[in-house]
């Protein structure tokens, strides 16, 4: 891996190509004489900056091939800074190229010094833009999908899936351990669907006694049972035009499963004590931490209901399976709770961050939030320490082998150094006592993101 920036020169005149090749210092020069070669070089070297002669074969005296090359390059890699050459009297085409997304132009015959300045500036701006994008991604890790915060690719993939299925009126089943954010995802799905203007109604089927669950879901007519003093619509009706989130669907007892199935098949419900079916247009999103497929095999969950509910199944990884999310969430939650409860606290001490990265988080984000809340209250100084978080040493079972043990220490230490240096690679490499290229290599080989 090399840090030398790559400059791609697209020029069909061999003499000019040579002249340009020698004119630049400090860059790795790659040349191309045709559109095909230029695209191949773009794919292979990903140059930050390209100089492009608009007069390429088969149209060396016109600009059509040059414009086609420009468009294709920008479509493939929009952040590339492309500097087009404008021949005598071809200022118009240069301006047109800029309108199409070229970064700048230079006049022919070439004034090498002027071109060198344009190229240097293009590299500089490219670096700044890349850095800005990186910082922006860090500061606003999620586009606020349901208020979820995440930095990991694992969670980004989940959000992408949910975003994609949101507009379709299919039933979605979210599978994940407690506290992984299932309800937030369901809410995000609702907000991103055409039903977003309707109500989002959530019910936790495990938290309601069996005897009351039917009435909660389907409602009841006045006098249907002792205590039914007035007609009350259930949650399914309350969510008409919107979304009903059935959390812990695995806890719905079998008799009620039959009634739910009928609603899903026929889109009508009957309140308890009611005589007429009521049509309802409610989308169902359900969630569980249980193994529903196994419950189907055991006969504890109806197979036909399972398939009605699980048109799309989305698995949500636990917090421990989402590299980088725990420290990101810890910082965000700390800011939130410090503002509300203890303004003196401004951040997490390095030992606290290390403990957060090492902990397995059996209770996932909910546990993290509880611990941060507690720590913010307990903290004496400006920084929350590991002791404030009250995390015992995580279990240390014997790893697979020495290589995997080393790798896991490497990963943890690198993440810790990145967290402490706010993602700055130079800072992290200093903390780790390795060179920047070494750290880049490690990030790449462990598939971590700097
Ligand atoms: N990625 C996230 N970003 C911000 N907050 C989160 C995230 N994931 C979870 N939370 C917060 O953690 C808590 C638990 O999340 P949520 O209720 O969505 O989890 P759940 O999977 O539905 O849990 P359960 O099955 O136990 O109800 C909530 O306070 C939620 O706001």
From TrEMBL:
Concerning SUPFAM superfamilies, the annotation shows: CheY-like (SSF52172), Homeodomain-like (SSF46689), P-loop containing nucleoside triphosphate hydrolases (SSF52540)
Pfam families cross-referenced by the UniProt entry: AAA_lid_14 (PF25601), HTH_8 (PF02954), Response_reg (PF00072), Sigma54_activat (PF00158)
The record's listing under PROSITE patterns reads:
RESPONSE_REGULATORY, SIGMA54_INTERACT_3, SIGMA54_INTERACT_4
Q: Which SMART domains match?
A: AAA, REC
Q: Does the keyword Nucleotide-binding apply?
A: yes
Give residue numbers for the modification (4-aspartylphosphate). 53
User: Any idea where the Sigma-54 factor interaction domain is?
Assistant: 148-377
Provide this UniProt record's keywords sorted from A to Z.
Answer: ATP-binding, Nucleotide-binding, Phosphoprotein, Transcription, Transcription regulation, Two-component regulatory system
Q: Where is the Response regulatory domain?
A: 6-123
Specify whether Ribonucleoprotein is a keyword of the entry: no
Spell out the NCBIfam families in the cross-references.
Answer: PEP_resp_reg
Q: What is this protein called?
A: PEP-CTERM-box response regulator transcription factor
């Amino acid at each position: 891996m090399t840090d030398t920036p790559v400059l791609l020169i697209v020029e069909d005149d061999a003499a000019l190509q040579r002249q340009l090749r020698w004119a630049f210092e400090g860059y790795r020069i790659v040349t191309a004489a045709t559109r095909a070669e230029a695209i191949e070089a773009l794919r292979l070297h990903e140059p930050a900056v390209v100089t492009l002669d608009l007069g390429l074969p088969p149209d060396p005296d016109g600009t059509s091939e040059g414009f086609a090359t420009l468009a294709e390059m920008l479509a493939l890699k929009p952040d590339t800074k492309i500097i087009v050459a404008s021949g005598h009297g071809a200022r118009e085409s240069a301006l047109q190229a800029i309108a199409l997304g070229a970064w700048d132009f230079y006049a022919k015959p070439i004034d090498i010094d002027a071109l060198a300045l344009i190229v240097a500036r293009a590299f500089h701006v490219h670096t700044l833009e890349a850095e800005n994008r990186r910082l922006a991604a860090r500061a606003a890790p999620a586009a606020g999908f349901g208020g979820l915060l995440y930095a990991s690719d694992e969670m980004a993939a989940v959000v992408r899936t949910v975003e994609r299925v949101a507009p379709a009126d299919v039933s979605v089943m979210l599978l994940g351990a407690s506290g992984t954010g299932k309800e937030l995802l369901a809410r995000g799905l609702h907000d991103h669907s055409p039903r977003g203007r309707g109500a989002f109604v959530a019910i936790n089927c495990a938290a309601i006694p069996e005897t009351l669950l039917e009435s909660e879901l389907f409602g009841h007519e006045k006098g249907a049972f002792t205590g039914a003093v007035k007609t009350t619509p259930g949650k399914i009706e309350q969510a008409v035009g919107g979304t009903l989130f059935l959390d812990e669907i695995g806890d719905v007892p079998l008799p009620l499963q039959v009634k739910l199935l009928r609603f899903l098949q026929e889109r009508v419900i009957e309140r308890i004590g009611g005589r007429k079916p009521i049509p309802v247009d409610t989308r169902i999103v359900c969630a569980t931490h249980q193994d529903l497929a196994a419950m189907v095999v055991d006969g504890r969950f109806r197979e036909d209901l399972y398939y009605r509910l699980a048109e799309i199944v989305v698995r949500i990884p636990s917090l421990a399976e989402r590299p980088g999310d725990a420290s990101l969430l810890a910082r965000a939650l700390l800011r939130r709770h410090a503002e509300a409860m203890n303004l003196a606290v401004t951040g997490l001490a390095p030992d606290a961050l290390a403990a957060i990265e090492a902990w397995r988080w059996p209770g996932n984000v909910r546990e993290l939030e509880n611990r941060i809340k507690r720590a913010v209250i307990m903290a004496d100084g400006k920084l929350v320490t590991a002791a404030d978080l009250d995390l015992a040493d995580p279990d240390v079972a014997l790893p697979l082998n020495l290589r995997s043990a080393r790798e896991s220490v490497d990963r943890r230490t690198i993440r810790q150094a990145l967290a402490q240096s706010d993602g700055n690679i130079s800072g992290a490499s200093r903390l780790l006592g390795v060179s920047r290229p070494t750290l880049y290599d490690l990030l790449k080989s462990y598939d971590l993101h700097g």
